[in-house]
């Protein structure tokens, strides 16, 4: 079992981030059902410890690329929650001015290179970000999050090779939640992620994605390797998705007991709370007050988003080019 | 004959062709949906928006093949299968994903016949969703048929209604060339009368959905619906529009287009693909070259701006052409009252 | 100032910009050439046709990065690097290979700025070879700039001579948007006077390479050379042509084009991209819409047929537009002797 | 060492095919230098035993896909040599009517799905051909030839996975000649082909590509596995390229001694001759007379090609569509 020798601030921040993701997503689930949220929304619920455990090893000077299921990575990397919520509502006050929506939240000032509507879109970008870190010698590391489904895209596979060939400070985090849309990884992923890492000459790590401490420690090793200039690694995170692929999916391909068991036995927030309170690192009250603060923050973000103005005609034509 | 949705019409075309010809197989991501899932339900989805629902149940895993998320390999596999005896219908979920597999479309299937001196046949269909209106943002809303129309060796179909969709898809499956079949995601629930039996609509024969001698309106895909609506409203003002639905952008029925232009001398083109090197430009250039002497007014194009598709609904609805913009464009070129035919 | 080839002009632009700005890096297959080879010669090639020769030797492995043969990863890496502080110049050896990496171009680099609400900059250049004339057949001879011109967010440059190539490439490297830079493979040995110092040619400003008031000839890339030759020969017949080289197809200098058309009222467009939804269609549609009142004759397009590029030299030379076809097209729209300006 | 228990006809045919490839290519090398052959030409010299050893296990009912370096695979698969030569000269009598050229020679009647100008173009096609064989139940197997360079293309990697997921009768033959253009595999290929096979759940075989008998036997195992419905395999063939990447390349990235040693010690034709004559399977005279017959055939093919008419204007517009 992983150690609890982590800076208390990091733990507190990470708990708050995980709770924020959970509440953000649960709230979106409710709001989506009212029909007020447009477009496709993919929830990260249940996977919080992965994004947060990885990003707790990073600073704004490091870069991540995310996926269609990106809210969690954004929050973990410190993107403003209010501006994210406004974006999902398509408001002018959104982080992308309402032009991106759920699948395109980005904040380069935080080293967040964007959610991505294209499966396998992120890994090549991360090779480039890692190249920047390497050549600009800024000590940064670049991390690609991608799913088990995305692990079959050529772009992802090529990137593993390129990162090794260029000996990049990059980490490839496979968030293996067992499904790509309605298709199980057991059907679609031949071989193993471990052998794939070997196939591209890369170190392989794995961890339990519902245990913040495990993710933090294991990803930390991969990230520190990269930071020391020892090259790229793959981190295989074992996870489960709690909701449908996107909002509206009834998950008729999964036994409902499976999901129920995951929620019961592998809730990263419950695990975190139990371990840290048992170890006397936090009191239940301390964590409760974080929970309350997060609830208020999410409530406010939704209220503000709903009240915010929509973008208007001139916004349609701006921001295509820096200059044209 | 009964009312069917665009979705049902497509599903029926697939089902009937699969029954008729055992070489027709479906390939794509979650075209069944559920393979390997813990519920043991191998057909949970029938396509991300339910278009292929029921086909796995009827035809089984050898005819309805779910794939890993790796478009280049399975779209290429469709090409290889077509060249060796099957007649695959592959699904590229959103046409925006063509970036992940363009080579197999542009350099392989499209060119086999020519490069190999006429000795290859590659009978396959790629079904794909296109279009804005779903708040799906920049990477899930593009039209992109100009890219395919640009590539010699491909046939490109953009059906404008349930009836059209069924007949054109059956034709596409029976055609011996690679065909890209564009389904507008906003139209799946549109309904109209569609025959129960099989029928096919030939490629390269435009359809006149409205007749009127003042202005020729050419529209593609979902825009045909808007053009019809515009034509109906303009009729009340005394402006008669002929609405042309080319049905297939490649091959293109240039004869019908030029005939109509000869009659009206005034043209408005409505298209939701990006403007530069887009479909409206293609049609306009044809007319400016071949029907110059007939033209009585500048050719007007109603198109989106040269921007990615925005997410916010306020912006998206400004992005896609709408009935009002079509009406203004027609008015701007319509003949003076005295010269009108209607 | 001295005579330099198109190849040398490009090489010099790269070298000078790399000296000026340490963030400029080259990425591509064999842009050095020789990495890992048994001779220990890390710069054997300097690009498949020698265009980047000498740059590895001067700038070393951190600035000139050879890649595995995996376009999607390294073109995407160029995008990611550009968004995070470098200014990469990536080479896509032949533009025909865009099928292997279109997503990173179309859905990533081109859309970042818009999707992210203006908060991203992606300053990178993709250099790529295009064009027929090399007997390189269907998969190594395409023009394809219409595909890129179609995509909002990309800038597209097609330099027509060594002088143009150097100035436009320097501009491309300094530009903060993604730029696709098309090099015609048949032109690498063409020579002309090119200044030794750095200079840049702004995007979106067309160049008039010939002036003459009877017919406006618009040509792209290598076709400018042919158009000039046609203009020179036509002058002897008393037909004066203005030749417009748009230099960049996106942004497009519509003002200059429309001004010239206003003067001549007669237009011939020469382009070697495929005809459907191609560059000539784009230009023609612009003119038919915006300059209709000025037109005195149909707009003529001199283009390849709607076929893949054939291998045999007899066919390839029929495929690409040539001077004779340009001359006939101009004659077919030129004014009667009495009305000529020249 | 591999066995010599091979049908004598197969051996004779294979020797002739290897010799034909060698002479075809050596002749092209000479003819190219005269400037009469247009376009890009990539020679397969030195690699003959690979294509021939694999294809000796196949019939016209099986399918192969090839690469830019495709002449050898075509000849091994039985494509007419005269029509190939005429194609390379761009003649109307060429196998593709002069429209394809060296990089696009194909003959579907022989199960030859085409050389390919796109690196990584073939493997996806082979998944499809294998699917046809499987569903049409014709007992056929589909084989993709691709290089070490192509082993880094996403299309190739995706195809390995797809073939495993669909359990296809497919074989992926990596012709590892150590270079992709001017770049060594030691630089560009991270990890190993063996681990890549494992990464996609695939059997792995390897063999010496200059030893016909080794290739024949090892590829035969993979092909028979596929034929029996036991799924796809990778066959890693160790090879060396004798000429430049394409005609015109001076190979300044390789020690000339390396190539000389390969030619001296690893010539598949010499090896074949030595082994079979020592074992008394063929006499030197028998093999010499094959050599002579091949020389005559190549000479004739060049003479005919040069004399043949070029395609003409109407050919430009035909064959784009079956119907349009
Ligand atoms: C290139 C591409 N192909 C297909 C899709 C459609 N799609 C969106 S998410 C998804 C599943 C991704 O699965 P995985 O990578 O496991 O991520 P998860 O959804 O499980 O987080 C698919 C197929 C897409 N967006 N892009
Ligand atoms: C998609 C694509 N990228 C790049 C090229 C240019 N190219 C042609 S052959 C080749 C090298 C291929 O190396 P390998 O696969 O090892 O085959 P070999 O030439 O050694 O037989 C390259 C890079 C191409 N034709 N297609
Ligand atoms: Mg998943
Ligand atoms: Mg090689």
From TrEMBL, chains A, D:
A GO BP entry: pyruvate decarboxylation to acetyl-CoA
Keyword Oxidoreductase recorded: yes
Catalysed reactions, semicolon-separated: N(6)-[(R)-lipoyl]-L-lysyl-[protein] + pyruvate + H(+) = N(6)-[(R)-S(8)-acetyldihydrolipoyl]-L-lysyl-[protein] + CO2
Keywords from the UniProt entry: Oxidoreductase, Thiamine pyrophosphate
Dehydrogenase E1 component domain span: 17-312
GO molecular function, one term: pyruvate dehydrogenase (acetyl-transferring) activity
SUPFAM superfamilies, sorted: Thiamin diphosphate-binding fold (THDP-binding)
Main function: The pyruvate dehydrogenase complex catalyzes the overall conversion of pyruvate to acetyl-CoA and CO(2). It contains multiple copies of three enzymatic components: pyruvate dehydrogenase (E1), dihydrolipoamide acetyltransferase (E2) and lipoamide dehydrogenase (E3).
Protein name in UniProt: Thiamine pyrophosphate-dependent dehydrogenase E1 component subunit alpha
Organism: Ameyamaea chiangmaiensis
From TrEMBL, chains B, C:
InterPro entries per record: THDP-binding, Transketo_C/PFOR_II, Transketolase-like_Pyr-bd, Transketolase_C
Domain Transketolase-like pyrimidine-binding: 4-190
Keywords per UniProt: Oxidoreductase
Cited Gene3D superfamilies: 3.40.50.920, 3.40.50.970
GO MF: oxidoreductase activity
NCBIfam families registered for this protein in UniProt: PRK09212.1
UniProt protein name: Alpha-ketoacid dehydrogenase subunit beta
Organism the protein comes from: Ameyamaea chiangmaiensis
């Amino acid at each position: 079992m992983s150690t609890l020798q982590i800076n208390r601030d990091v733990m507190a921040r990470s708990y708050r981030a995980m709770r924020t993701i959970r509440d953000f997503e649960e709230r979106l689930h409710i709001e989506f059902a009212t029909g007020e949220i447009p477009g496709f929304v993919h929830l990260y619920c249940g996977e919080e410890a992965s994004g947060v455990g990885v990003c707790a090893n990073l600073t704004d000077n490091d870069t991540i690329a995310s996926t269609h299921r990106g809210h969690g990575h954004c929050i973990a990397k410190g993107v403003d929650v209010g501006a994210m919520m406004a974006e999902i509502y398509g408001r002018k006050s959104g982080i992308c001015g309402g032009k991106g929506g759920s699948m395109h939240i980005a904040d380069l000032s935080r080293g967040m290179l964007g959610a991505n509507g294209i499966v396998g879109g992120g890994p090549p970008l991360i090779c480039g970000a890692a190249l920047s870190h390497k050549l600009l010698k800024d000590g940064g590391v670049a991390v690609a999050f991608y799913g088990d489904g995305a692990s079959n895209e050529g772009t992802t596979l090529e990137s593993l090779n390129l990162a090794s060939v260029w000996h990049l400070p990059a980490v490839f985090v496979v968030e293996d939640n067992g499904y790509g849309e309605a298709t199980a990884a057991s059907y679609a992923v031949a071989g193993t992620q471990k052998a794939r890492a070997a196939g591209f000459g890369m170190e392989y790590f794995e961890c339990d994605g519902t245990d913040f401490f495990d993710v933090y420690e294991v990803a930390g090793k991969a990230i520190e390797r990269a930071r020391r200039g020892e090259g790229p690694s793959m981190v295989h995170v074992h996870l489960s998705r709690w909701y449908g692929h996107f909002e509206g999916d009834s998950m008729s391909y999964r036994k409902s007991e499976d999901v129920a068991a995951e929620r019961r036995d592998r809730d990263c927030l419950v695990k975190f709370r139990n371990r840290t309170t048992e170890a006397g690192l936090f009191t239940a009250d301390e964590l409760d007050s974080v929970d309350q603060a997060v609830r208020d923050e999410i409530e406010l973000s939704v209220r503000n988003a709903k009240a915010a103005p929509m973008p208007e005609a001139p916004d349609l034509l701006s921001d295509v080019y820096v200059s044209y | 004959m009964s009312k069917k949705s665009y979705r049902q019409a497509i599903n029926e075309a697939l089902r009937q062709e699969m029954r008729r010809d055992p070489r027709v197989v479906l390939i794509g991501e979650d075209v069944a949906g559920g393979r390997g899932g813990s519920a043991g339900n191998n057909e949970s989805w029938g396509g991300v928006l339910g278009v292929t629902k029921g086909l796995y149940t009827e035809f089984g895993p050898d005819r309805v093949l779910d794939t890993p998320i790796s478009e280049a390999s399975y779209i290429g596999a469709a090409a290889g299968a077509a060249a060796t005896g099957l007649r695959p219908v592959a699904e590229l979920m959103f046409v925006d994903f063509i970036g992940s597999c363009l080579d197999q479309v542009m350099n392989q299937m499209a060119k086999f016949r020519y490069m190999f001196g006429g000795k290859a046949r590659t009978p396959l269909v790629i079904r794909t969703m296109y279009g804005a209106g779903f708040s799906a943002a920049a990477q899930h809303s593009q039209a992109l048929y100009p890219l395919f129309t640009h590539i010699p060796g491909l046939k490109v179909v953009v059906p404008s209604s349930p009836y059209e969709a069924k007949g054109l898809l059956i034709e596409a499956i029976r055609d011996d060339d690679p065909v890209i079949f564009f389904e507008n995601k906003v139209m799946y629930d549109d309904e109209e009368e569609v025959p129960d039996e099989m029928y096919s609509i030939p490629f390269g024969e435009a359809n006149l959905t409205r007749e009127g001698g003042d202005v020729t309106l050419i529209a593609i895909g979902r825009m045909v619906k808007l053009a019809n609506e515009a034509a109906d409203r303009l009729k009340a003002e005394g402006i008669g529009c002929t609405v042309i639905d080319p049905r297939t952008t490649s091959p293109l029925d240039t004869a019908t287009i030029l005939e109509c232009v000869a009659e009206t001398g005034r043209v408005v083109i409505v298209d939701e693909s990006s403007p530069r090197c887009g479909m409206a430009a293609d049609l306009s250039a044809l007319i400016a070259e071949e029907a110059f002497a007939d033209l009585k007014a500048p050719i007007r194009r109603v198109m989106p701006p040269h921007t990615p598709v925005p997410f916010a609904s306020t912006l998206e609805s400004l992005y896609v052409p709408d009935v009002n913009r079509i009406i203004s464009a027609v008015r701007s070129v319509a003949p003076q009252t005295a010269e009108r035919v209607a």
